[in-house]
Design a protein that fits this description.
By secondary structure, this protein is of the alpha/beta class. Strands 1, 2, 3, 4, 7, 8, 9 and 10 form an 8-stranded mixed beta sheet that branches. The protein has a two-stranded parallel sheet with strand order 5-6. The chain has 2 domains: 164 residues, D-Maltodextrin-Binding Protein, domain 2, CATH 3.40.190.150; 100 residues, D-Maltodextrin-Binding Protein, domain 2 (3-Layer(aba) Sandwich). It is built from 12 helices and 10 strands. The longest helix has 23 residues. The protein starts with a helix and ends in a 5-residue tail after the last helix.
Length: 324
């Protein structure tokens, strides 16, 4: 009996040792990184920069896979339903954690129950822009006055109902007393041509999507939703400086895995994100693309989600948006 117990004990120890070794060896094969938004948009561009950095630090291919639709819910749900082994991960913007649960009547996943937030990865300001060819305003104050006088109000475009762009726009127009009409597109890549054609008057969306077109001089930037001026575009005022007080709203994203992701894998990934964010070359790539590299512990990532949930819930209610 004693020998049998010793044998079983040795077998159990061996199994734990092998499991520990397997986890310690993570990763030992390619990782899929699901981007829940279309190719070419802000989330896609920044996800690919992150993937490049993770690839170098993890020593394995990190393959970006775009699975868009339903406000990012399709891609994030694919992560939530994957095996918790660290080989299927995703990037999830703020909307997939603290906006969509208040926006959609039926959510395919519960962000608290079904996901592991490994680390925040980047933060993106929203920038208010108009087409210089079709809108005469060159400052936010001029735009507000123009918008109030415009017959039928302002037509604005966003990358979708319930996005941070949509909620920020509704909040801005409500505060400014400007009548408005919302035209949702699939992505900022579709909004931009509509603005340049004069079909849309205004957009307030992620700087990452609009930085290039602003630098080319085809659009006028009226203000940033940040507390301080953005380092790569210091000539653009904050909205507070432009005459819209108490309007600091940024969009952040997180590296996610399914619930049950082992602590060792979480820490390995969080460390890799921290190293990516600390690399000056990578930081500059993020800034050039319109984002600011971030890194946190899993607990810090979850704390920010919990802290901002009431604010975004209120913004959804103000917008009146609802999705099936």
């Amino acid at each position: 009996m004693v020998s049998r117990r010793l044998l079983l004990g040795s077998a159990s120890a061996a199994m734990l040792s092998r499991a520990s070794s397997a986890q310690a060896a993570y990763p030992n094969r390619p990782i899929r990184l699901i981007c829940p938004y279309p190719a070419g948009g802000a989330t896609d561009v920044l996800t690919r920069i992150l993937a490049d950095g993770l690839r170098e630090r993890l020593g394995q291919p990190v393959v970006v896979e775009n699975r868009s639709g339903a406000g990012g819910n399709i891609g994030v749900d694919a992560v939530a339903k994957s095996a918790p082994d660290g080989y299927v991960l995703g990037t999830a913007p703020v909307g997939n954690f603290v906006i969509n649960p208040f926006l959609y009547r039926d959510m395919p996943y519960d962000p608290v129950r079904d996901l592991t937030a490994v680390s925040l990865t980047w933060e993106v300001p929203n920038v208010a822009v108009v087409s210089g060819k079709f809108v005469p305003a060159r400052t936010m104050e001029e735009f507000i006055q123009w918008g109030r006088r415009k017959p039928g109000g302002v037509v604005y475009g966003t990358s979708g109902v319930g996005t941070s762009a949509h909620l920020c726009s509704e909040l801005l127009f409500k505060r400014a007393g400007i009548p408005c009409t919302h035209i949702p597109f699939r992505s900022a890549a579709q909004v931009i041509p509509a603005m340049l054609a004069g079909d849309v008057d205004f957009a307030i969306d992620n700087l990452a999507s609009y930085a290039g077109i602003i630098q080319q001089g085809q659009m006028t930037a009226l203000g940033m939703t940040t507390a301080a001026r953005w380092p790569t575009m210091p000539d653009i005022p904050t909205l507070a400086e432009a005459g819209v007080p108490d309007f600091v709203v940024t969009a952040w994203s997180a590296l996610i895995g399914p619930a049950g992701l082992p602590d060792g894998i979480q820490q390995r990934l969080a460390t890799a994100v921290r190293e990516v964010a600390a690399n000056e070359t990578v930081r500059q790539r993020f800034l050039t693309a319109g984002g600011q590299a971030l890194s946190t512990t899993p607990a810090q990532a979850r704390a920010r989600m919990d802290r901002e949930r009431p604010m975004w819930r209120e913004m959804v209610e103000i917008s009146g948006a609802r999705m099936e």
